[in-house]
Model the fold of this input.
Amino acid sequence: MIRIALDALGGDFGANPNVRGALQAARRLGVEIILVGDEKIIRQELANLGHSTLPKHISIVHAPNVIDMGAEPAKEVRTKKDASIVVCAELVHKGAADAFVSAGHSGAAMVAALFGLGRIKGVLRPAIASPMPTYQGVSLLLDAGANADCKPIHLLQFAVMGSTYMQKVFDIEKPKVGVLSIGEEETKGNYLVKHTVPHMREIGVNFTGTVEGRDVNTGDTDVIVCDGFVGNIVLKMAEGLAKIMIRMIKREVKKRPLAICGALLSKGAFSAVKKHTNPDNYGGAPLVGVNGVAIIAHGKSNEVAIFNALKTASKLVKKNFIGDVADKIASLQGVFAKIEAAEAAGE
Amino acid sequence: MIRIALDALGGDFGANPNVRGALQAARRLGVEIILVGDEKIIRQELANLGHSTLPKHISIVHAPNVIDMGAEPAKEVRTKKDASIVVCAELVHKGAADAFVSAGHSGAAMVAALFGLGRIKGVLRPAIASPMPTYQGVSLLLDAGANADCKPIHLLQFAVMGSTYMQKVFDIEKPKVGVLSIGEEETKGNYLVKHTVPHMREIGVNFTGTVEGRDVNTGDTDVIVCDGFVGNIVLKMAEGLAKIMIRMIKREVKKRPLAICGALLSKGAFSAVKKHTNPDNYGGAPLVGVNGVAIIAHGKSNEVAIFNALKTASKLVKKNFIGDVADKIASLQGVFAKIEAAEAAGE
Done:
């Protein structure tokens, strides 16, 4: 049985959504959930939800400490061995869990995963891969913020890992992979993109060209590769702008009595759009490249979001995501070495 | 009287919106518009609009050639001396016009302005500054695409020029200036941002901190500074996502008969949002840092957009934008030199 460690107090809403999501996952997915965090708080939450004893397929690992959100993640992770996120990574590292999920501080989760699990052999920079709602469904954007400055070789590895992820989790046989850039011509872009694109056809992914800003949310490309600076801005901007558009519409509706009636009648349509663009439904953001399955859920995750993140984690374990990425990266070592040498010579 | 050269055939819709916008500007703004392009086509368009002779404050400069959109802009500009955009820049250079406006190829306009007008003394890299609709009004984003790779000194100069622009055109006394980054802490970001932010308080602008992706469209910051790669992606993504949101809402509305009625009743509210987010209303994107007033209008500009771009151009001339930027850049030469030296030493 697949065992998933869950940072039980991670996220903005404490134990409640985590424990509820865990209960649902244990019941519906046939996996074991290890709730990691302050045991007393977890037991209290379970009791509140009607469970005076531990439910089937639920266990607890006591981890009394928490990461200080305001402090430097690397220092926090190094000094707090009994922080829940550190214990989660440790459980995976020593084989007591097959994966971990956390809705806590994403920087701390990244560092805990890196320190606790290390990197897959040959991977230079693990990345945060973020599923992003689009017109047609969902695209994977990576890196979404782990590496602010990248080299071409990093982007090429992101492409390989992101493509594998979309195969495993979204069952897309040949995910379309694009590089985020300016202008459609492959000769345009910044230094990083110009030095990445020429190698995109050497790494065995279905490279379909560069992707302009206006096409980020169409869903035409399954995997969009960029550095973590651009990726983080794009991701947060998409979230922010969608909210601002809704606020603008509401503001204008409120000025018009007829429109208020109209808005009431169209409510179902708006709810559908809201649901479709809700990141909760897309199963959290995996840390790809670390040597173990690790998923970061949104800080504002509710029960559904936690359940979906746990489901994605279980899928990745079942489908041997880590093993497959390791194999692909290993088989590309020669190609990567050649590209790195050429880049180093050209600099 | 202020004289503005207009690339009369620039943009996706040919002479019509340009000539109409010019007629409106000549009538309402008390400026002279020089229509630059194929004289026969321009005269035909004027005739179609009921002017068999040249209207008051409208003149024509014949420029029979056009830039090939598919070709390399620098080469096109260098070889086609009689292309309308090249003639526009030349008119400003020789003092026959005070400013130019073009809705043609923005890359070609940038190159024509650079070749024809040169840079303001001390400006290292001219930028495209793009007004961007926000929840509260409009923010200026620069660079929006002229310089894919930038150094800190470039971003600092963009901040000075963008701030001056918002003072002149939007009458904001102390524009709030931010640097686009990831995370709110000033210590976060990529190499470029980390080396730019520490100097932001040395250049006499009202620096209010870094701006995250989610806050790009709130309107809390008047001037958002970034490199042209990130800026172009952000700008195009904002345009694209707004359209996609509307398409998503329409798709869901169509599935629900009640919602269709509701949408009809709320139509006014949607039109208001559409109008508010329409870049046509914000007067085009100035090329800041070139030694003359040059404005790029959207390729899809209609009469209103052209009129507004001409209005902005006239405002910039009237308020001595070029002179003021030149003075500020000159007064900061010592500061810039020190920053550049420090950066060079640190590299």
Remarks:
- Chain A has a mean pLDDT of 92.
